[in-house]
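Lab manual, section 2.4: Encoding a predicted structure.

Procedure: take the sequence of the chain (482 residues), apply the prediction step described in section 2.3, and record the output as structure tokens. A sample record is shown.
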Amino acid sequence: MRGPHQFGEADAEAEIDRLNRPPQSVYWNSPIGQRFDFELPPTVYGPREDTNLLAEVINKAHLPSTTKALEIGCGAGAISLFAASMGWSVTSCDINPYAVACTMGHAEKYGYAIRVREGGPGPFQDGLPQQWMGDELYDVVMWNMPYLNPPKPGEPVLGPLEEAAMIDTDEIGLYARFLNLLEAGQLLRPRGRAYVIVSNLGIGEQALPLAWRKGFAARVVGQCQFEEGEVLSALALWRPFPEAKVEHFPTLESTNAYLLNSPHGLGSRASADHQSKGRGRRGRSWTSPSQAVMASWVVALSGGMAHSTMHQLLVGHHVRLLLSSHLVESSGAICLKWPNDLFLRSSNGWQKFGGILFEARSSGKNHRIVLGLGLNLVAAQPYGSLIELLPKVSHHELMESLHAMVASLFDTTVNACLGEHRFHADGINTEVQKAEFCLGPLIYRKETVHYSGLNEEGQLYVNGRKTDLLVDDPDALVWSGI
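Recorded output:
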């Protein structure tokens, strides 16, 4: 809700007028064809496109009928009714008392035993959080979050109750407050997952890295786009790699080699303070300074995927998102150089500070793929120093957020996502274009060229004098700005 001085006497009178409006009769069809008829009192949020998006996500998750769920911001009760129709045990809450009464009435109408409470996450609470979340932990938490930004001074306002349903007025942001609850061990069971709806008009692209920084895997599992340019995204959040073995060593020959030769399962991580035989692309040695993130993860087993250059680009894109989320004023100081090098802009110009390496090993029917990440934290010429950009980020914090980020892409041990990850082609294209701007001009076969696109494998095309050329050897492409 807004502060006490942002709504005046006239707003209070207008709110009374709103509450005197007659209810609306609407209906909503669930993803499996059920029809629910609603009587919407004034100020209660009814089913819309964002409701459809969230319902599709939980329907395709194929969760068991024993699922225990909490819906935050239940509004008219559409999502709660749909979840209850699948046999779930459902608890709902809303800070609008009219929404609470509305959901309770609809639950009774359709014969579902939904527990409905008043309250929700926010800067102001009546009593303890248990008032709205209860004393339980849930398998699933669902929240179609208020995602509109507050109006600027002088702009028209909605009524207090409607603003609470549609506008994020929390001083730290409702999404950040929600992540704090998850990080504190509230709401979710250890293997639970949350599904939230966010908008590019609100938290937008920052939603993923903010979750990673709290130690939660987060992936976009559905989207809805409107003609005016707004994009709603459904995110799945969960604790990464629940069965993973995590090991750290003072010294290893290579973290990649260690995991390739180990029996450890999906998501297992090995890190080291020092690698005596660290590897880079094409078998080159990777020399790291005394302080660096040197870690590897098992990302696929038994032929679960075939890695390609696109996977390197995908990981690089997400590492850049994570690191840039710390750089409010200078988010353009990091870029991904095709196919697998990370560069930062320092006082010495653009310098390489990290790299990405996938390696695979097969033995009979056993097949495993390992992802290695190396990020230099301190300067060691000719390499850059990540600490120069992120002086307040600890090694431990960075490692745990990278672990969550990797899980967002490759964790299949929890039914938190829908099918295979969809490559974010637009985001990766933007990454390569930015790298050309920062590190170019590009020279290929002694000719100045420009980036023109990627194929499905992540191989790069450049514009030559007569036609597009496929760059089959990354070492033949010169980035003349470095």
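Check your result against the sample. Residues 9-238 form a domain with the Rossmann fold fold (CATH 3.40.50.150).
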